[in-house]
Amino acid sequence: MTGEAQTTDALGRVAAIDRSTLAEEIYRRLRRAVLSGDFAAGERIQPDRLAGVIGVSRTPVREALQRLLAEGYLEQEARHAFRVAPVDYKSGRELFAIRASLEGLAAREAAHHFTEETAEALQRTIDAIDLSPSAEWPERAVGEFHRIVYRASGNRHLINLLDRVFEQTLRYRFLTRSDTPQRQRETLDDHIAILKALREGRGADAEQLMRSHVLVLARRFEEANNS
């Protein structure tokens, strides 16, 4: 498929939206397209063309694009055009450092008011991990483990920050994923240890375990960048 055809196809997926919340829905669809790779790093996005494909005025499209620009998903070009921000080493290193600190803090706070319901939800994500050679790695369940922990912190400001940082690090998942038996075992063991610390109310330990776990992802990213 040509680059032009891929762009048209991606725009088509963005087009099926609820007209009652235009700017918000366009923003969500575009962000998802960037994170999924439908819009590749460096790809140009023209507001007028996007508005035409969706069938709306330029105003909600520009609002959505400005939000993505502010969040670092896009870069501004001349003549009101935008380009998908590159996946670069410096940004990745910075994002993982931020995420490690914030997720560690979230784990500490989650330990102080941890519930059995949260424990059961975390256990389900752990149970979804099958280390047998023929099993598919449950990327969604592994990511959900992290979301459950930081949302269990009860700190809405921290949750909002982590929602944004976590999603931005998803752009680097192809460099940090657990794609070897050793990495998969390490991920599983880390998640089990974090859950144990949370169950036992050991906030400081939960914080350290989570920070170390996320920093492993940062090291994988650095290894991939240097390879």
Commentary on this structure:
The protein has helices spanning 3-15, 22-36, 47-54, 58-70, 89-112, 116-127, 139-151, 156-169, 173-176, 181-199, 203-226; strands at residues 44-45, 74-76, 82-84. The chain has two domains: 3-84, Arc Repressor Mutant, subunit A, CATH 1.10.10; 89-226, Four Helix Bundle (Hemerythrin (Met), subunit A), CATH 1.20.120. A hairpin with a 5-residue loop joins strand 2 and strand 3 (82-84). The chain is mainly α and 227 residues long. The mean pLDDT is 86. 70% of the residues lie in helices and 4% in strands. Strands 1-3-2 form a three-stranded antiparallel beta sheet. The protein has eleven helices and three strands.
Task: Describe the SSE topology.
Layout lengths: L2 H13 L6 H15 L7 E2 L1 H8 L3 H13 L3 E3 L5 E3 L4 H24 L3 H12 L11 H13 L4 H14 L3 H4 L4 H19 L3 H24 L1
Antiparallel strand pairs: 1-3, 2-3
CATH H level of the largest domain: which superfamily? Answer: GntR ligand-binding domain-like
Which word captures the global form?
Answer: globular
- For the termini, the CA-CA separation is 29 Å
Largest sheet: 3 strands, antiparallel
How large a portion of the residues is in β-strands, by DSSP E?
A: under 5%
Number of spatially distinct domains:
2
Helix content: over 70%
| Uncertain residue segments | none
Overall number of strands? 3
Q: Please report the number of helical segments.
A: 11
Q: What's the architecture of the largest domain in CATH terms? A: Up-down Bundle
Oligomer: single chain
Specify the CATH class of the largest domain: Mainly Alpha
Average pLDDT value?
86
Sheet with most strands: strand arrangement: 1-3-2
Q: Might you state the CATH topology name of the largest domain?
A: Four Helix Bundle (Hemerythrin (Met), subunit A)
Topology pattern, helix = H, strand = E: HHEHHEEHHHHHHH
Radius of gyration: 19 Å
Structural class: mainly alpha
